[in-house]
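Example record

The entry below shows one chain as it appears in the dataset: sequence first, then C-alpha cells.
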Amino acid sequence: MIQKFILAIVLLILTKIEAQTQYELSHKFTYLLTYQPDSTVTYNKQSGEMFLLTSENSSVFQSKNGYLKDSLLLAIENDPNEEISMADISRFPKTQFHSKILKKNSKDSIIVYDKIVTDNFKYLEYKGNIKWKISSDTQTINGLKCQKATTSYGGRDYEAWFSDEIPISDGPYKFSGLPGLIIKISDSKKHYVFELISKSKIDLTYTNLEPKKNLFFTTKSVFFDRREDFKENIIERIAQSGFIIDDKYKADVRRKLKKRNNPIELE
C-alpha cells in the first residue's frame, strides 16, 4: 500500500515536471502520411501531413493539424483578448491522428500522449521494442542518398530508407535509432507510408506538449484496451450522455467504425 502511494506521488511529480518543460526545437521535417483506413478497400487511400520537430536532445512528432490546433489554443490561453475564437479552431481540417510522441536522446523510452474523445492518456514505451536490420541496399529518394533497413513492429513488417546526409537518428511516428534520418518508411502492404517532403530550420519553443486536463498516466496495453472498448460500446456511451439517437444514426456510426479497422499498430 505504501509502495503504491509512493509510486503515485512520483508519477505526479514527473507529470508536473513534464508539463512545465520547454523544448527548444530547431528543425522541422514534414512527412506525407498516406494510409488505408479500411484494410479491405485498397482504393480508399487517405493522406495528411505530419511534423517531426527536432533539437539536439529531443523531438516531437504529431499531425500538422494537431499542431496548428495546439498553437491556437496556446495563443488563446496566453492572451484571452486575442482575436481568436473557438470558431477559428473548428475550421481546421480534422485529424485521425491525435497522438504526440516525445523522444529524448537521453532516455530509453519514448513518451506517447493520445486521447479518447475528451480523455487524455500518457504512456511510456521502450525504444528497444523496434529492432533494425540494416541492409547494404541503397537508392536516392528526394535527392538524398538512402540506405535500407527493416524491422517488425506493432504487427507489421516495415521497410525504411534512412540517410546519413541528415545525421539525426530519428524518424516519423515512433521510429528512430538508425544512423541517419528516416526519409521514407512503409509497411509491407503499403497500408501506412511516411515520406519526407520538406525540411526547414525553425526557432520554436514548444511549451504545450502535455495536456493540462483529464490526463491519465497508464500503460500502452491499457490505453489500447480502453480505445477498443470505446469503439465497441460507442452507441451506449452516446446514449448515456443524454443524446437521443435513432436507428439510422446508430447504423451510420457502426458503418463508419467498420471502415476504420486498420490502425497503424495491430498489436
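Notes for this example: The longest helix spans residues 2-20. The chain has six helices and twelve strands.
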